[in-house]
Amino acid sequence: MSPPRKVYVYGAQGHGKVVAELLTAAGDEVVGFIDDGLPAGTPTLHSQVLGGFAALRDSPGALVALGIGANQVRERIAIRLLEAGHQLATVLAPSAIISPSASIGAGTVAMAGVVVNAEARVGRGVILNTGSIVEHECVVSDFAHLSPGAVLGGQARVGRRTHIGLNASVIHLGSVGDDVTVGAGACVVRPIDSGQTVVGVPARPIVKRT
Hints:
The protein is mainly beta. The protein has helices at about 15-25, 70-85; strands at about 5-10, 30-35, 45, 45-50, 65, 85-90, 90, 95-100, 105, 110, 115, 120, 125-130, 135, 140, 145, 150, 155-160, 165, 170, 175, 180, 185-190, 195-200, 205. α1 links the parallel β1 (about 5-10) and β2.
């Protein structure tokens, strides 16, 4: 059995609280929260905010879990942490089922009830939210977010910083580009280009009215 890790959680809002509780459930120790928008000493859960990024100055090589929901912000913070010599903590809920042939990148969080099947590849800093499913041989790129109940069919591909909404799905062999937002309950049945927002069944781009 691995010894408990001492982990800082970056982000003290709702998502960060969930990450902290997952760490505790896995037997790790939450040292405290880092948050650039809250004053040091702010209580949260059973810990407190230690300060912003500078609070890590006296902890070289700190192990930090990403508790930030916004994909672009999470990516920016992760890069800053790595450039400063810190490490990204991968957080797996005890009830998550991860295939031994799958790969999970540093800084990714897999929440309760997540399933990642054979030879799937999940990048860095990804959020696999509650009950999401990543089927065999899928590719989920860095800093993407699969919302609760989202499902990827076998060999589906999801681009960098893309957000798959609540209970949305991508069919077998489907592909979604970078920086895409797939609306709640949508079903992606054809390739989605980068930068689009799609909704509905089947998922279609939102048409901007002039």
